[in-house]
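Q: I'm writing up a methods section and want to include an example of the input and output format. Could you take the sequence below and give the corresponding predicted structure tokens, formatted cleanly so I can copy it straight into the document?
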Amino acid sequence: LMMIGVPPDPAAITTLKSMINKHALKDRDKGVQIWSRTYLMRLDKTLMDDKNLTVLAEYIKDKDPGVVVEAIQALTVFGTDARSKIPDIAAALNRDEPPCVWTALLALASFGTFAEKTLPQIQAIAQSHKEESFRKLAREVALVVEGKKKEVSFEALMPPKEKDKP
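A: Here is the clean output for your methods example:
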């Protein structure tokens, strides 16, 4: 649904909203809940509010790293409109699961200078993370958050070369 976008027909929007509210938001799969809420917020701009952003941000506290990653990705769909949830995203930098940390770094980069208060956490990863690929990405993210670069370079997203591996 996210890829399809918002249907032009108001009746279709009403039907979709009803189906999402009745079924998808109550699905036992948290990923379905996350993306259904995200789509609902895109269908109806009046739902793009702190209450719904907070519901999405709460999933960042989940014990399942997959759910955490999906919640962070969903928040980035809203760009700087979700900047109030930067502290929630930054909290994922403290998790042990690499996908959570990696996704949080990329999300913070997408907020640019709005994520400035997270620089100490990002710089700590840049200096002392056990994996070079994370240190490299964090250095790039720090530059973006500081406003010194526009975006993270493609090279920073690449896995380490054989000669760089421990």
